[in-house]
Design goal:
alpha/beta; about 10% strand; Rossmann fold; 2 domains; globular; six-stranded parallel beta sheet; 6 strands; 10 helices; about 240 residues; about 50% helix
Length: about 240
């Protein structure tokens, strides 16, 4: 097997911690009240977000309404009173916080070292095309990853975990005999999808989720961005660079 590698990243809860934006946006929309269980809030919000993503992707719901529904349904599940006005306020605050996204020093070092080593890098993300690419722009990813290497489900017509989007990424990046690593937080979309495509996997498990029962283990699992840095900088070409 070749020692030459390529890296493909997810965006949300991989390149940044999503709860660091969601929790304050929600608590501010509640007038400063604290969420009783932020981790449970995050888990339910993720589930509801994916459901609403499928609805909007299928054209059954307008995008903004899907975003309002995801937080309304999340708070309903948590049995926390939450009005539609609060949901609109939450969405506005959440969007404002996304305008200040920054890569951590550990992530910036990963990208800088990989670019210097000539490693091909890309992004695969499920979501609205313009919105996800705007996040990449805000974080300054163009310094390291060409925008033509950023594949967003809405823009390419298929989504993780479908193998088609992984094949598209190989074509965009010009992958030939490189060992490709998918780096992402969703086991179902990122890890299982990449495994089915024949890629290696690095599970970014910031929230300490258990491996799904009967699932194949990822090649690596990390719980912090510093751990991710150490794993990636120990791969293939980077070991001797």
């Amino acid at each position: 097997m070749t020692d030459t590698i390529a890296l493909v990243f997810d965006i949300d809860d991989t390149l940044y911690r999503q709860i660091d934006l969601l929790q304050p946006a929600c608590e501010e929309a509640m007038g400063g009240k604290k969420l009783p269980d932020p981790e449970l809030f995050y888990q339910i919000f993720g589930k509801r977000s994916y459901e609403m993503f499928l609805e909007s992707s299928a054209g059954r719901m307008e995008l903004h309404q899907s975003r309002i529904c995801r937080i309304m349904k999340t708070m309903e599940d948590l049995q926390i009173p939450f009005t539609e006005e609060m949901a609109e306020d939450f969405q506005r605050r959440y969007k404002e916080k996304q305008q200040n996204l920054k890569l951590s020093p550990a992530l910036a070092e990963i990208l800088e070292r990989c670019k210097a080593a000539g490693i091909r890098m890309g992004v695969i993300s499920n979501g609205p095309d313009q919105h996800q690419k705007e996040k990449c722009h805000i974080m300054g990813l163009e310094q390291w990853i060409p925008m033509e290497h950023v594949l967003v489900s809405e823009g390419v017509g298929c989504a993780k975990p479908e193998s088609e989007i992984f094949r598209m990424a190989e074509q965009r990046l010009g992958i030939t005999d490189e060992t490709v690593y998918m780096i992402g937080d969703s086991f179902a979309n990122d890890m299982a999808g990449a495994m089915n495509a024949g890629w290696k996997t690095i599970w970014v498990n910031y929230h300490g989720y258990k491996l799904p029962e009967g699932a194949k283990k990822p090649d690596y699992q990390v719980k912090t961005q510093e751990e991710l840095r150490n794993v990636i900088l120990g791969l293939g070409d980077l070991r001797t660079f």
